[in-house]
Amino acid sequence: MTEETPGFDEKPDVPSGATPDDAEPKAATPSSEAGAAPAGDATAQIAGLTAQLDQSRKALEERTADLQRLQAEFQNYRRRVERDRITVKEIAVANLLTELLPTLDDIGRAREHGELLGGFKSVAESLETVAAKMGLQQFGKEGEPFDPTIHEALMHSYAPDVTETTCVAILQPGYRIGERTIRPARVAVAEPQPGAQTAKAEDGSEAGDDKDNGPEEG
After folding, report:
1. Closest CA to 111 of 101, 120, 102
2. pLDDT average, residue stretch 53-66
3. What's the confidence (pLDDT) of residue 23?
4. Residues 6 or more apart whose Cβ sits within 8 Å of residue 190
């Protein structure tokens, strides 16, 4: 029997001329094709990212459209509120000035009769100035054509020296604020005398005939 020497391990036989590394088994090296991701997986990932980008772009467009719509609605709301505010202000001013018209009429009559004197004159002129600053305008003059939209005829007559219905007297002046009439001018009107135009036309034709029938040269 052969005795084994304790403390020494048996080593595999190594051929002569070979290094110890040659004796160890080599680990298998994975091939490059096995380590690379398949082309189909990359295409699927790109397609998924493209779909997500399209969804994000679509959501952004929808949110942008919603924001634009809200902005338009807000602008319309602001314009409507501003228009209503101006309308309410105009109505309030018109109502106030309408209540002052009888006082302004009294001031006008006092001025016509020479009774606008002293402190009353100063107060009256201050009131007229304030009313004018608030946009009150007086209208109505003698000799202007009658307009039923701004004149109210209280008296009617005929006159041979007018060619159309004319305001011959202002009984009470009219007032307006901008383009809005708050009281028409109350006037006396005169219309052309019936038959006056016909008589003038006949006179003109007779005068023309006389000129035509002048003496002839011999």
Report:
1. 120
2. 90
3. 47
4. 156, 157, 158, 159, 162, 165, 166, 168
